[in-house]
Amino acid sequence: MQHITASAPGKCILFGEHAVVYGHPAVAVAIDQRINVRIEMTESDSHDWKLDGLTFDPKRHPHIEAIKHRLWPNSLGAPPLSIQIGGQIPAASGLGSSAALSVAASAALRVARGRWLNNSNSKNQPEDWAEGFSSALDDTDVHSSNQPDDSMRKGELGNKVEFIGGSEAVDADECALIAHAVEAIAQGGRASPMDSSTCSHGDVVVLSDCIEEGLEWQYSRRLKTPEGDREWQIHTVKPPIEDVYLVIGNTGVHAPTSKQVEKVAEMLKQQPERIKEIETIGMIAKRGIKSLLSGDYESVGRAMSENQLMLQSIGVSSPELEDLIRAAAPSSLGAKLTGAGGGGCMVALTTNPKATSEAIELAGGITIISTFGAQGLAIEEAAESPFWIVE
Ligand code: MEV
């Protein structure tokens, strides 16, 4: 049977959540836990998609609906699919489950569709693509209300001259870009590319307001938010290998990102002077990036704990998170909430994962241990692709 499985890792934020939405620097690490998306051609005659065996309901799965619109549109005659979602990342817990889902689904659909190029013998660079989304293409706006219905390019740029299929057609920037657009829709127009880029590229991702020396710059990302235009520079880093681990403690409290992001936006609207706290988070992140690059994990841990104090101050921590962070402190280099807060998970950086994990569990958290930085998106299997080629 024709099927494709793609996977993408979850993420933990070391520094800078919330402030990154306002353009400040931030650092995230891809974790070992992943989301898998398997797609198959459906055998029924119906035009409906199936999701985990049931008829797909776009209202319940807005992420999938938005991706379908961009990569698998009915308007071009794309056939219905059956999709199965699996993995080890709990939803709405600050570990990037929705970004990982969007990245993996985008990658699977790109393999299922392949990619037309508008030149023969081209190098498969975005300028040669007859279809697709890329940070390198200024005409691509995948988020705003005048978003294209599909990734086909128009006029001569959409000439279908050469076709590439399989995992060669997949582009990590494209998957991150689509996932960012989808996150922005879900978060009321306020979303940084932190989760989407980390789940796509893997390892460690640094976002900044400028191109940082010593890091591998990947691309710029822009977004119009309700509070103004934002631009981020996205970099990847392979951190020096050390014996350090991330221990993640889940409070079990469901905490949707959109509500927390809105809460911070409302606070800044009512008390504009509190932008100073957001700026302080940005400064802590800048310091943390330097420590990370020099492999000074003790300073990285200290910066994480300082960051937590600021997150507390802007009101996105919670008593449950504080309990787990306090329990982790004696055996770790630093600990803080990760993601939007209000519940969800905390993360501790530690050289003694067993002791840290036990302490968090004793305080009532459910733990996950991860190495520091995991592989980005991956095509796990691709049997008999493409499923469909745009005519
Ligand atoms: C969510 O993982 C991190 C936030 O900063 C939101 C975002 O960056 O879009 C709270």
Structure description:
The protein has 391 residues and is an alpha+beta fold. The chain folds into 2 domains: 3-235 and 376-383, Ribosomal Protein S5, domain 2 (2-Layer Sandwich); 240-371, GHMP kinase, C-terminal domain (Alpha-Beta Plaits, 2-Layer Sandwich), CATH 3.30.70.890. It is built from 9 helices and 15 strands. The chain has helices spanning 62-71, 97-113, 172-186, 194-201, 257-270, 275-293, 297-313, 319-328, 353-362, and strands spanning 3-15, 26-41, 50-51, 54-55, 81-87, 115-117, 162-164, 204-208, 216-225, 228-237, 245-250, 334-338, 345-350, 366-371, 378-383. The strands form 3 sheets. Strands 1, 2, 3, 4, 5, 8, 9, 10 and 15 form a 9-stranded mixed beta sheet that branches. Helix 2 crosses helix 3 and helix 6 (275-293) runs antiparallel to helix 7. The protein is globular and about 60 Å long. The two termini are 23 Å apart. The mean pLDDT is 92. (R)-mevalonate is lined by residues 13, 17-18, 20-21, 94, 187, 191-192, 194-195, 257, 261, 339-340.
N/C terminus separation: 23 Å
The third-level CATH topology of the largest domain is: Ribosomal Protein S5, domain 2
Major sheet details: 9 strands, mixed
Report the bound ligands by name, code or SMILES.
Answer: (R)-mevalonate
The topology string of helices and strands comes to EEEEHEHEEHHEEEEHHHHEEHEE
| Weakly predicted, low-confidence segments | none
Domain count: 2
Quick one: CATH class of the largest domain?
A: Alpha Beta
CATH architecture type of the largest domain: 2-Layer Sandwich
Coarse shape: globular
Structural class: alpha+beta
What gyration radius follows from the Cα positions, in whole Å?
A: 21 Å
What assembly state would you assign to the polypeptide chains in this entry? single chain
State the helical fraction: 25-40%
Number of helices: 9
Q: Return the average pLDDT rounded to an integer.
A: 92
Strand percentage: 25-35%
